[in-house]
Amino acid sequence: MTTFSIRQSKSFTGLMVQALDFVAVWSAGWLAYQMRFFEKSNDWADLPSGELGLILVTALFSALFFGKVYRMWPGGSLAAMVGRVTLGWLMAWTLLLVFLALSKNAGNFSRLWLVTWLVTGIGLLWIARVAAFLIMAQMRRAGYQHKSVILYGDTRMLQTVRARIEQATWSGYDIIGAISPGDDFDLHELDARLKPDEIWVGVSMAESATLEQVMQSLRHSVANIRLLPDLMMYQILNHGMTITVGIPMVDISVSPMFGSRMLMKAALDYTVAAIALIVLSPLLIVIAIAVKLTSKGPVLFKQKRHGWNDQEIYVYKFRSMEVHNETDGHVTQAQRNDPRVTPLGKFLRKSSLDELPQFINVLQGRMSVVGPRPHALKHNDQYVKLIPKYALRHKVKPGITGWAQICGHRGETDTLDKMEARVQHDIYYLEHWSLWMDIKIIVLTPLATIQNKNVY
After folding, report:
1. Dihedral of the alpha carbons of 222, 223, 224, 230, in degrees to the nearest 10
2. Where are the alpha helices (DSSP H) in 319-375?
3. Is 254 part of any domain?
4. 146, 3 contact by CB (below 8 A)
5. Within a domain: residue 149?
6. pLDDT tens digits for range 185-237
7. Do 116 and 149 belong to one domain?
8. Quick check: is 240 in a domain?
9. H helices then E strands: how many in the chain?
10. Which of 36, 161, 348, 398 could join 374 in a cystine, given CB atoms 3.0 to 4.6 angstroms apart?
């Protein structure tokens, strides 16, 4: 069976997804209108010109806009695709409301219809995304969306790539040949005979002469040629390529928060923090009064921590300990049966209710809802010398909750092993960040808080 290259089918896939998005948003607007005004009209085809135009423009805008919010790629997980299209629709719908308000047309449209459109749109877009995922999976099984690859080299990176491609059958890549330096077979001859879509060259950073020979041998090749530098000995964070002043650079340790990613995370942070403070305001007032009545001292405890780019920030918590002073900047973690913790404070710490004022930190732009937990300055100075990758945590804003916390690494870190485990989970979060992952962590945090027994 002849395979159909990704180069030829990539544009078709993108158009297919955009068409499904357009149909989903259009259908959602139409259905929402019929549900809202069904009692006034028995004609399901009846739709006023104003609503018709609004639905048409929004559906077209959404189909184009979603492509900038999330990325489609061969083998992308269904959860990630659904999460991104949900975010895209929420942003598109919010922009629609802003447009109606600024153009002074908001009063011309039913608010109930717009809200119904929002909910219906999410449901239909989920269905469309599942359909797109199944169609792409079937296309790959049928031989479409495949890209043939020749591997050259013998580095550890190349070996890792081979193993991952062989395991990830959904990726769309097929290894059709491999050759190592010193083999009798010529790379140029292999390329001419197999005509691959891609050639991946794995050489160490010191083998510039070998790379020059490879490029000379492939000077007539029409395949995409990619270099796999041997960087396995480094901790790669947010790996990729960056073009700076016209010079290609390999990203070895880069913050995952940039461009649209930063905007998406900020939108989630401010939305969640604002809603949380509004909804929880009665509880916050009750806790504040209880803290004030049960022990002497301020309601809020304010402590310096390290934030994004290692900048010092103040982090707020409900005071859970008796007021006390520690000498020489020493910070003692709370331990089991710690006499400094008040009876109310014990409950607040166990339930994590003492962390709620940090939503104020989020609105201030100092923290994120999800991210590595901020540590006391003294602890940072200590662990940055003991754990080589510790400083990578500061490439994003610290969070109220995080991947380490929902995985059980919350509370006292009385041993170096515990802190190393927490740091490893924080780095995993930085390497695999997505908006869907943030939402997942937020949803799982209450359950993780209940199950955790390591907080005193």
Report:
1. -130
2. 343-351, 358-363
3. no
4. yes
5. yes
6. 688 888 888 888 888 888 766 677 777 888 888 887 878 888 876 665 455 55
7. no
8. no
9. 15, 11
10. 398
Residue 449: partners with Cβ closer than 8 Å, 6 or more residues away:
351, 352, 410
Rounded to an integer, what distance in angstroms lies between the CA atom of residue 278 and that of residue 54?
32
Q: Which residues, including other chains, have CB under 8 Å from residue 31's CB and lie 6 or more apart? A: 120, 124
Mark 218-256 as b/e (b = at least 16 C-beta within 10 Å).
beebebebebbbbbeeeeebbeeeeeeeeeeeeeeebbb
Tally of domains in the chain = 3
Question: What crossing angle do the helices spanning 49-69 and 6-37 adopt, rounded to 10°?
Answer: 140
- Same domain flag for 41 and 183: no
Residues 125 and 164 occupy one common structural domain: no
Per DSSP, helices labelled H in 331-453 are 343-351, 358-363, 377-386, 403-406, 416-431, 435-451
CA neighbours closer than 13 Å in the CB half-sphere of residue 16: 16
* Nearest partner of 345 among 381, 372, 369, 317, judged by Cα: 317
Least confidently predicted of 216-225, 282-291, 334-343, 432-441: 334-343
Looking at the fold, whether 159 and 207 belong to one and the same domain comes out as yes
The last residue of one of the domains, among 96, 117, 141, is 141
Alpha-helical runs (H) found in 42-155: 49-69, 78-102, 111-141
Assess whether 313 and 419 both reside in one domain: yes
Whether 323 maps to a domain, the answer reads: yes
Are 271 and 416 members of one domain?
A: yes
Together in a domain, 181 and 122: no
State which H helix or E strand residue 399 sits in. Answer: strand 399-401
Query: Could you tell me the two tokens for 10?
Result: 């990539």
Distances in Å between the Cα of 429 and the Cα atoms of 56, 352, 379, 401, 441 are 39, 21, 21, 12, 10
**Which structural domain, as residue segments, surrounds residue 115?**
4-141
Which residue is listed with tokens 């930063």? 262
The answer on 153 and 93 residing in a single domain is no
Instruction: Show Cβ contacts of residue 222 under 8 Å, excluding neighbours closer than 6 positions.
Output: none
